Amino acid sequence: MNTARPYTITLPEEVPSDFRNHDLDGDGVISTADMTVALQRLSVTLNLRLTDDQVSDITAALLHNEDAQLMTHTHWDGLLKRWAERTARTASVEEPETRRSPLSRLGTWLRMYRLEIVWFALHFLLQLAFFGVGVCKYMAKIRAKGREFAPLNMVGISLAMNLQASCGIMLFFPAYRWCMSRLRSTFLAKFLPLDSSILFHIVLGWTVGVCAVAHSTCFLVQYYEVSIQPNATYTFLQDIGEFNTGITGWILVATLITISFFSLPFIKNTMWYDVFYWTHKLQFVFWVTLILHAKDDFWKVFILPFAIYILEKGRKYVDAFRWGRVTRIVEVNLLPNKMSQLVIKRPEGFHYKPGDYIFLKAPHLGWTSWHAFTISSAPEQKDILWLHIKASGNWTRHLRRHYENSSDKWDDISLCIEDDDDEAQLNDTRFDQFHNESDEIVQSIGNLNTVALLDGPYSASTASFFDTEHAVLISAGIGVAPFVSVLGSVVRRRLASQAGQTHGKGRGPLGKLQRLDFFWIVREHSSVQWFADLLHDAQQQHHELADDCPFIMDFHIYVTSVPQQKELEVLQMGLKMHHELHGVDALTGLRTETKCGRPKWPAVFRDLSAQSRHGSVHVFYCGPQGLEKELRWFSAQHRFHFSWENF
């Protein structure tokens, strides 16, 4: 484009400052070079990491819209005016959320937590029942032995029943991952708060803590009162130092305080996760000591839950050993924004559903701990598994550094890929080592033969995905991993259907699914490149098969590092115009237009509700807990089903 000109235009005083800010050489017009430099500066300011090609494409779209090689202030005013009108129309459609009455809000809250409320109520009634059993046992004991009634003794013994019930029967159930995975495949899943198992574990932990404090206080006060009687045969210190109840009690108190403190969020959810993991192993000290402390009572309620626990752990190590002979990390791809992709040889007989997760142990990084990750590959990929791991904690950062520094130290392996399409997908994940536009090294390390132990797979909320009529997948950051597996399965099922393959008696390739809305919220647009090929293939396939299948699929991608501010109007206009001209997004290369800022959830859920003709709506979410509460609230408002990927 020829932008040379032998003159300078004198601008009137009323020309807005934003035009002058883009007219960098001050000649009265905005040229291609002016706009390019302005967008590059904006990219640096916002840390957008726009490539030169992306900046050029956005610049060309802005100038093409005005059908001019040079943009005068008249063109500029017209452009801003049309953008303001378009924004105003959009804002008028996005009606503000109406304020609801307290009764209506209460109803929404009850729908949000209906299962949790029912089960917490049952838990409370069960605790009352065990307390009542303790009272009855105490009264029968003093009548049989002719002892004097002691209220503190009665309360302490009754609280001991609560402690035994909570510890023996209930505290183990979050560890029953295999059992809960099987339950997700039954009709009982509708009546069990399986997504809230960790919450129940925490509540039961607090129950144990409160009962333990009250139980200890009752007996300490009782011991003191007895020790100061004139005819006392033991001192207070002798009473609390007696082994069966005293010393074992103090060990239980110390163990419980240690486990509870190191389970607090500021430790568990940070780089100190390993401390949380290892202090939780003190539970075995707690169980043994509690058996000694409670004498003949606790083991009776402990034996069955512990037997199930042992069976679960036994199955875990048997599978890990059986699959450990063939499971190998065969390739590692270091992706932008601290993301690593592990490509693992899939063992024969390893069956899973979209969105399932596993526990991974990498002996070359340490034999001591297992780490949970979602399987991001589709179940239809026969020979390989994908794990996408963000370097955020101690172990994951160690994993990233290990492969960054060890790319030339591995033995070769001959990986047999039986499915040609799987081999193509494996090849698609390979990159030559290069520097991207942000100078961050991205490299592929292939021909590995690294032992990896797997525990799983375990089912998550997406197990019911193909039994849903209208599925809404909402993810934030790396929370997209389970939904990548889901999208990959959708793509492969539709391809298989085109090839004449069936998916069960009386079922189409997508089960009951009629519509899919996929939301992905990322901080930086470069994060979309983690799964750009899969997202592009899914959109391309859907476009090609749109006439042959009534299935509807929409993508909604939000980049939060580009906030919706007046200073960024030019960039937002350029992105919009580029999408209208070329049908693809300038930032991601996808057919879906990238939206700037965070989603306006009230408007989003109103739109989803208006599409309810496609069947009942089920919202699946994977991401931070703060957003989970907001999404759960809006789902309850619109009477949608809601599931949170939480393990």
From TrEMBL:
Location within or outside the cell: Membrane
Residue spans crossing the bilayer: 117-140, 152-178, 198-224, 245-264
Stored PROSITE patterns: EF_HAND_1, EF_HAND_2, FAD_FR
SUPFAM superfamilies: EF-hand, Ferredoxin reductase-like, C-terminal NADP-linked domain, Riboflavin synthase domain-like
BP terms from Gene Ontology: defense response; superoxide anion generation
Keywords in alphabetical order: Calcium, FAD, Flavoprotein, Membrane, NADP, Oxidoreductase, Transmembrane, Transmembrane helix
Domain EF-hand residue range list: 10-45
GO cellular component: NADPH oxidase complex
Top-level taxon: Eukaryota
Name of the molecule in the record: NADPH oxidase 5
